[in-house]
Each structure stands twice: as structure tokens, then as C-alpha cells.
Specification:
The structure holds three protein chains of three kinds. Chain A has 14 helices and eleven strands. Chain A is an alpha/beta fold. Chain A has two domains: about 5-115 and about 210-230, Thiolase/Chalcone synthase (Peroxisomal Thiolase, Chain A, domain 1, 3-Layer(aba) Sandwich), CATH 3.40.47.10; about 140-205 and about 235-380, Peroxisomal Thiolase, Chain A, domain 1 (3-Layer(aba) Sandwich), CATH 3.40.47. In chain A, the strands form two sheets. Chain A has a nine-stranded mixed β-sheet, with helices on both faces. A two-stranded antiparallel ribbon of chain A has the order 5-6. In chain A, helix 4 crosses helix 14 (about 335-350) and helix 7 (about 160-175) packs across helix 11 (about 290-295). By secondary structure, chain B is of the alpha/beta class. The radius of gyration of chain B is 19 Å and the shape is globular. Chains in contact: A-C, B-C.
């Protein structure tokens, strides 16, 4: 297997981008990554997108978008794993380069979510749950995570305030990220007093509906070193993916994100790393409870200690393990298919030392954890400066 | 051949609205209404309850009391209602599917204002008596609507009762001794196609309609069977409000003691097709072996079905096998304000 | 929104709570599948689910998906039935959401789950209601 490096990163600003259609969003991020890498041709394009069909009425996305860059003829593949589609696109590109099937891959993620109204967006996101046996009964994503939150609170004593502190921290980080959807300082009181969405989760516990795209250029580490000269090269040293039951009723342990744990273990094993080695992590905080459960599943904290870790500041920018320096899905925004790619963009920025005001000093090893549905799938990548 | 009820069950929704709560919205004189109509509160179906859902639960309660009737042996199922959820598409198929009686059975939805429930009982027992089917289910159920502000709004309520008829002597808990019907064309109450609310002839619904039909039906029944009011332990009449069933019973010579057990409307409201059948379930819940029961329904338009029913020794074995009607009526109630009631009854215009 | 055909093919499960019991390991699958996820068994016998259970976890949805507006607030629960099978259901007849709790005993009742507007089909199935009520 060949070592794989990230030589280009790009993303759009995240937000309600009323003037920009899906294809332009995507092209903007793709061009930024190609320019950042200093190349103009690739062997393959991978696209993570959850539901362009339900959000915009457009399928057959891979060919459509390759053509948008004038790349008709180049192989292009769309992958889907709900909100983990972006992470899966990274893994698909990684596998192509590592295996030798391709030398250079443009990895992208995109979602245009604001072309439908709130109820239709809620419905589209809800299709990541089990449509027949959960969606039929009216469950929504905030609803599924609310059920997980209630279990976590009951089993471990995780508090309403600890959940709120995740939002407070991530919004504080987002203030420092020019690409973030929200530049908004929030307090614990703001969060707990915000509108109830699905008890016990309030509006400010939830990631927003967002338009956005992100892109990477992957190539072999060998070629990356040739291009980079003396500059540091960021290599993907670990890639793990796992599935779990999409149907919450069949989940073995509702207080744990099993797919995140398994994907993490696989990434750690490939990279020959352990949680203590990681300098910063982007986790899939689609809801505040998700960040707490993800940091436990990835081994940064013991089960049940994710909530108190946030309270103690262990996950803040200056903490023991900074979590979601980008602002996370909570503040940066969550264009679902783009999220997994954007997480890697943040980690590469940090490892390159280009993260500006939110730079984690001395960051050499970072992790990105992306998740589909209520934990039905997860993709974890470990990246290192070599 | 002896034919009778081998299982019975009722379902009453948990929600209620008090007469005062409706009266205050329309500026009506609540004390006068309570005195005049003898109505205190009524049941209200949830947004998730309709004639079909209540019929399924009532039928399941009937099966629970049936001594193990195999649903596959049910050869006919009829639901009488004026609030079938679909104008075209049967309610009975959904109920038959839910209780596992499909596919070898005959199903029909019936409609005859408030008499549709006893119609289903009448036909079901007759099919068993004719030897056409082994078991037949008759259901009366309604989620009736009264126009906002109309007198009917104080009474239109929701509930269901289901009866399984059979000819197995050891399963019969109440024998159908005899039946009689009295029918004329009398336009006292109607709802035209596509109309949401019914219209009625106001006081014309009284003497020429309710009283004339109920009394002729009950008298005809007793004459046919050679019985007198004093022979019955219980008598149940249709209950459009609290006042009419007691008055018609007294006129016929029945006493309070005979009438009160099946008299539910002051606290239940008028469940239309479910009204007298639910009253019968309340009577069966406490009846003793050998008791004779007179059941007389009334449906606008107009007609009245009467039944003479004799309770058997099996009754005491089955009374506790499913929720009793009076318990459903008196316990675990959820009281609504008019706003929530209007929302649940579809009286609020929603966005398309 | 579901098409009539899509709802219709699940009637045995939605209307009658039909499940499948693995003849190898006795695990009860709801809905039935072709292969037992516990042991890999491929033969099953029909099994009707009990209608009594308890709440494993729950929420009250305030921002509903399309088709559930009239039923909002919408209480939902994961319910574990008496035989250990878990299923996602709405909780019906909730007067005060504050009274809901993990472990609450419930019974499944036949209810309307949703409906396709005023003119479309009505989707029936089961909801949990507090047992003893």
C-alpha cells in the first residue's frame, strides 16, 4: 500500500448561500483545492453528497460536476453514507491512491440544503434513519439524538449544562473561523433557553441547515514530497470505517456510538497511534450530545466522562485535546455531504500551521471523525505531518 | 339454533371536553344546557383516533372475551358508522386485517345515522342464524362531528363497541332471543355528500323521529316476544343526549334501575352508531346469568332496531377479560380546552 | 410520504405485529428478515409480538417532519416489549410530556400514524399508551 498525502485543500464559506447553486458551490471548492495543490488535472473525482436528489432534485451528480470543471471524460464517483458521505469520499480517494489504481484524486463533498423549506429539509435528513420502521413514525434526527442524550444522561449523569457547554465552546471556536456559518458568541443560558426542538435538545444544541462544499487533492506521499520541496507534507496515516445498525431499536448499546468506536480503532491500528498521541480532533457534533459521545467512543475520555471533560475545558482550544477547532458542525455549519471533507480541510490547515487565530500550537497529529445518521456509519482519518 | 354474543368489547377515547368549555366559546347558557340536555361532558377522539382505530381496539377486546375464537373463523364483519374515515374505501377491511380475519370473510360498511351500529349487529347475528358463517362481527363506531356552535356540538362524541356472534352453545355469553325493526322515511337529520357537518330538523328530531320510532320499535319487540317491561333486568335506548333515553324508557314503563346502567350519554356524549351498543357493553359488564336485556337503537332518517338478549352463565367468566366500559369512561381522562379540541377535531384550517 | 403500496406490504407487521422467530437461536426479529443477525439462521416461525412493554428512551419532537404537523408535539419512544423486542413508536394520549419517563409501562394500541393530507391515504399502525390508562 502506498502512503497518501493531502497536497491541496479548499472550501467555500459555509452558510445560507442563496445566490449560489449546487454546481457552483462545488466548483468553487474544487478549484480552490486544485489551485492550492498547484495542479489542474486528476485521475479521478470522488464526491460525497447525501441527498442532492431530495434537496435539489439533481442526481447523476458525479458526471455533472466533473463536467462543471471541464473534466468530462475523467472518472468520477459519488459516494453516499448519509452525513458521513464526505468522510467516505475521502476514504474512497485514499483507497484509490494507496492501491495504485490512481495517482491523483480530487476528493470533494457538497450539499445544497436551502433550496427546500424547513419541513422538507427535516424530511430529507430523516431519510438517513430507517424509513420503514423509524421514519414512518415521524422520527427526526434531533429526535433520535434526543433519545440517545436521554439514555446518556440517565446512565452517566450527563447534564443539560454539559450539553450546552459543547455549543458554547464550538461557537467560541467558530468566531475564529472566517468560513464558519455563525460568528456568534453563545452562553450556557442562551443554549438552554433556546427553543425546544426535541426534548431535551434545544435549537442551539443542533447543527444548522447549511450550503457548502469542501475539497482535497490527494496524491502519493512520494509525489507530494517532490512538489512540496522543504514545506511539510501532510499524510493520511490511518483510515477506518465502520457501520452499525441504522435502526436505533436494534442498537446493542444506546449509550455508546459503536461505529465510531470501531472506525476509530481501525484508524488507530493503521496509523499505529493511540488516543494520547492525537493533538487535535474534529468530531461530528451534529448535536451537542454527539460530540460528547464521539469523544468517548474515540477513547479520549472514558465512557460517561465526555460531559465533564467539556465542563473542565479539556476539549477547548487550549485544552488537553482540542475538539472542533473549526467551530464544528455546530458553528461552522453542516452541509451534510461536505462536512467530512471540511473536517479534513481543518486538520490539514492546523497541521500546516495555517489555522490563524485558532491555531493549535505544535499540532503534528490530527484526527477527523465523520458520522452518518444516528451513528449507523462512521469514518475516521488520522493525519500527520511528516 | 341458538345464536348469541360470544365476545364483546368497547373502546372509549381518553379525551373529554366539558359542556361549560364549549358553552363559554359560544356564549351559551351552560347551566340551562346541562339541565335541558343532561349532558356534562363528552369524549373526544385524538388526531390519531378514528372509527377504524376504535373498532380495532373494541374488536380486540371482544376477541379477548370470546374464549379463543380463531379470527380466521370469522366469516363476516360489519361496521356501522356515519364517520367512516374514507368516503370510498371500506373501514371493515382495515379492521379485518388488523384482527387477522382476512381473507375468507364478507365485509361491509354500513350507514344509517345513529342506527348503523345495531344494523351491523342485526345482520351479523342473522348470518350466523342462517348458518352462512361460523362467527360474525358487528361493530358500531363513530367520531361524530357537530357544527361549531350548533346544539350537536355539545353531544357529538366518539366511541366503539364490537360484538362477535356465534352459535357455539358453550361460548355464548348472551343469547339473541328475538329482534324487531321499525322504519319509516322521516327526514329529521341528514348530511349531504361532501358536507362536513350534518343538519337537523331541530325539534322535529324529537317526537316524530326519536320518540315515535324508539317507542314503536320497543313496543313491537315486546309484543312480538310476549314480554313486558317488568320482565327485563336492563333496557338500553339510543342516547342523543342525556334526557331522551330516560324519557323514552319511562314512557314505556321502565324504571331508573333498569335504565341507568346502559345510560352513558351524560358523561360520554352521543357516540352515534356506537351509542346504544356501548350501552349494551356497560350492561354486559355487570349483568348476571338469566338477565333479560332490551336493546333499542334509533337512527335518523329514520328507524329503530330492537333486540331481546338473555344473558347466560358464561358472562361472569368473561367480564374481567378486557377493560370494562365504565372504567374506560370514568378513569384516566384527559380534559381539553376548546382550542385543543378544535385542533383535534379538524376545525382549524391548516396550511396546504 | 409513503405510497399506498409501500404501506400495504407492511400490513402484517404494522397491523398485526407479526414477527419472525429464528428456529436456530430463538431470537425474535421485528420486522422479519431473511437471515438472523444473531446466528445467521435462515429459517423462522411466525410470532405475534406482545402488546405490553416499557419505555427505553423517549423524546418529544417539537419540529416535526412533513406530514406530522397536526400531531405536534409528537412524543416518540423506543419501547421494549415483554419478549425483549424493541421498536420505535409514537406515544399516544400524552396529556403532559413532563410525566413521561424511562421505564414507563406502556401498551400498544391501534392508531393513525400519519395521513397524506386531506385526500391521500391514512397510515395505520400502533402507538404506545401508558399502561393502565
Amino acid at each position: 500500500m502506498r502512503d497518501v498525502a493531502v497536497i491541496g485543500i479548499g472550501m467555500t464559506s459555509f452558510g445560507e448561500l442563496w445566490e449560489t447553486p449546487l454546481r457552483s458551490l462545488w466548483a468553487e471548492a474544487a478549484l480552490a483545492a486544485l489551485d492550492n495543490a498547484g495542479i489542474d488535472s486528476v485521475d479521478l473525482v470522488t464526491i460525497g453528497c447525501m441527498s442532492s436528489g431530495l434537496f435539489t432534485g439533481q442526481e447523476h451528480l458525479a458526471s455533472l460536476l466533473a463536467d462543471e470543471l471541464g473534466m468530462a471524460g475523467v472518472p468520477a464517483t459519488r459516494v453516499e453514507s448519509a452525513c458521513a458521505s464526505g468522510g467516505l469520499a475521502v476514504r474512497a480517494g485514499f483507497a484509490e491512491v494507496a492501491s495504485g489504481l490512481c495517482d491523483t484524486v480530487l476528493v470533494t463533498g457538497v450539499e445544497k440544503m436551502t433550496d427546500v423549506d424547513g419541513a422538507d429539509a427535516t424530511y430529507a435528513l430523516g431519510t438517513a434513519a430507517d424509513a420503514e420502521w423509524e421514519g414512518f413514525h415521524g422520527v427526526t434526527f434531533p429526535g433520535l439524538y434526543a433519545m440517545l442524550a436521554r439514555i446518556h444522561m440517565q446512565k452517566y449523569g450527563t447534564t443539560r449544562e454539559q450539553l450546552a457547554r459543547v455549543a458554547v465552546k464550538n461557537h467560541a471556536n467558530g468566531l475564529l473561523n472566517p468560513h464558519a456559518q455563525y460568528h456568534l458568541k453563545v452562553t450556557v443560558q442562551d443554549v438552554v433557553n433556546s427553543t425546544l426542538v426535541a426534548d431535551p435538545l434545544c435549537l442551539l444544541d443542533c447543527s444548522p441547515v447549511t450550503d457548502g462544499a469542501a475539497a482535497l487533492v490527494l496524491t502519493t506521499a512520494e509525489r507530494a514530497r517532490e512538489i512540496a520541496g522543504d514545506k511539510p507534507v501532510v499524510v493520511i496515516t490511518g483510515s477506518g470505517m465502520a457501520t452499525d445498525t441504522v435502526t436505533l431499536a436494534n442498537r446493542a448499546d444506546l449509550a455508546e456510538l459503536g461505529a465510531v468506536k470501531l472506525a476509530g480503532e481501525r484508524a488507530y491500528a493503521m496509523a499505529r497511534r493511540k488516543p494520547e498521541d492525537i493533538h487535535l480532533v474534529e468530531v461530528h457534533d451534529c448535536f451537542t450530545i454527539a460530540e460528547i459521545m464521539a469523544t468517548e467512543a474515540l477513547g479520549f475520555f472514558n465512557p460517561g466522562f465526555g460531559g465533564s471533560a467539556v465542563e473542565k475545558g479539556l476539549t477547548s482550544l487550549q485544552g488537553k485535546i482540542p475538539v472542533n477547532t473549526s467551530g464544528g458542525l455546530k458553528s461552522k455549519g453542516h452541509p451534510v455531504g461536505a462536512t467530512g471533507v471540511a473536517q479534513v480541510v481543518e486538520i490539514v490547515s492546523q497541521l500546516r500551521g495555517e489555522a490563524g487565530q485558532r491555531q493549535v500550537q505544535g499540532a503534528k497529529i490530527g484526527m477527523a471523525q465523520n458520522m452518518g445518521g444516528s451513528g449507523g456509519s462512521s469514518v475516521v482519518h488520522i493525519l500527520e505531518v511528516v | 339454533m341458538t345464536v348469541g354474543i360470544v365476545g364483546y368489547g368497547a373502546f372509549v377515547p381518553r379525551r373529554r371536553i366539558k359542556l361549560e368549555e364549549i358553552a363559554k366559546v359560544w356564549g351559551a347558557d351552560a347551566p340551562a344546557y346541562k339541565r335541558g340536555l343532561q349532558l356534562f361532558e363528552k369524549s373526544v377522539p385524538g388526531a390519531d383516533e378514528d372509527t377504524v382505530t376504535m373498532s380495532v381496539e373494541a374488536a380486540r377486546n371482544a376477541l379477548a372475551r370470546s374464549g379463543g375464537v380463531d379470527p380466521a373463523d370469522i366469516g363476516a364483519l360489519y361496521i356501522g358508522s356515519e364517520s367512516h374515515p374514507y368516503a370510498v374505501k371500506p373501514s371493515g377491511t382495515i379492521v379485518a386485517e388488523a384482527i387477522g380475519a382476512v381473507p375468507a370473510l364478507h365485509v361491509a360498511d354500513l350507514e344509517f345515522a345513529c342506527k348503523a351500529g345495531t344494523e351491523s349487529l342485526f345482520i351479523a347475528q342473522a348470518l350466523v342464524k342462517a348458518g352462512e358463517v361460523k362467527y360474525a362481527v358487528g361493530i358500531g363506531a363513530d367520531t361524530s362531528q357537530g357544527a361549531p356552535g350548533d346544539a350537536l356540538e355539545y353531544s357529538a362524541a366518539a366511541g366503539a363497541a364490537a360484538f362477535i356472534f356465534g352459535a357455539d352453545e358453550d361460548l355464548i355469553l348472551a343469547e339473541i332471543v328475538d329482534t324487531y325493526s321499525w322504519t319509516t322515511d322521516t327526514p329529521d337529520f341528514w348530511r349531504r355528500e361532501y358536507m362536513h357537518y350534518p343538519r337537523h330538523g331541530s325539534r322535529f328530531t324529537g317526537e316524530p323521529a326519536y320518540f315515535r320510532h324508539s317507542m314503536n320499535s320497543a313496543r313491537g319487540m315486546m309484543d312480538k316476544a310476549g314480554l313486558e317491561p317488568g320482565d327485563f333486568a336492563y333496557a338500553i335506548f339510543h342516547q342523543p343526549n342525556g334526557k331522551f333515553p330516560m324519557r323514552v324508557g319511562k314512557k314505556l314503563g321502565f324504571t331508573n334501575e333498569q335504565l341507568e346502567t346502559g345510560w352513558l350519554s351524560p358523561w360520554l356524549g352521543n357516540t352515534y352508531s356506537g351509542a346504544s351498543p356501548i350501552g349494551l357493553t356497560a350492561v354486559l359488564d355487570i349483568a348476571s346469568p338469566g338477565d333479560l336485556i332490551l336493546l333499542t337503537s334509533f337512527g335518523s332518517g329514520a328507524g329503530s332496531d330492537s333486540f331481546v338478549i338473555r344473558v347466560t352463565g358464561r358472562i361472569s367468566e368473561v367480564q374481567d377479560l378486557a377493560p370494562k366500559t365504565r372504567e374506560q369512561l370514568d378513569e384516566n381522562k384527559i380534559y381539553l380546552e376548546y382550542g385543543a379540541y378544535a385542533k383535534l377535531r379538524g376545525k382549524i384550517r391548516m396550511a396546504e | 410520504m409513503f405510497s399506498p403500496a409501500r404501506a400495504w406490504r407492511e400490513y402484517p407487521q404494522r397491523y398485526r405485529l407479526e414477527a419472525a422467530k429464528c428456529t436456530e437461536c430463538s431470537k425474535i426479529l421485528y420486522p422479519p428478515r431473511l437471515v438472523c443477525p444473531a446466528c445467521g439462521g435462515r429459517t423462522f416461525t411466525p410470532e405475534i409480538l406482545p402488546r405490553e412493554g416499557k419505555v427505553v428512551t423517549f423524546t418529544v419532537i417539537r419540529v416535526p417532519p412533513a406530514g406530522f404537523t397536526e400531531q405536534t408535539p409528537l412524543p416518540l419512544a423506543l419501547v421494549e416489549l415483554a419478549n425483549g423486542v424493541r421498536l420505535m413508536v409514537q406515544i399516544g394520549d400524552v396529556e403532559n410530556p413532563e410525566t413521561l419517563e424511562i421505564g414507563m409501562p406502556v401498551r400498544l394500541e391501534f392508531r393513525r400514524i400519519s395521513w397524506d393530507g386531506e385526500a391521500g391515504v391514512i397510515f395505520y399502525g400502533h402507538k404506545a399508551v401508558r399502561a393502565g390508562s
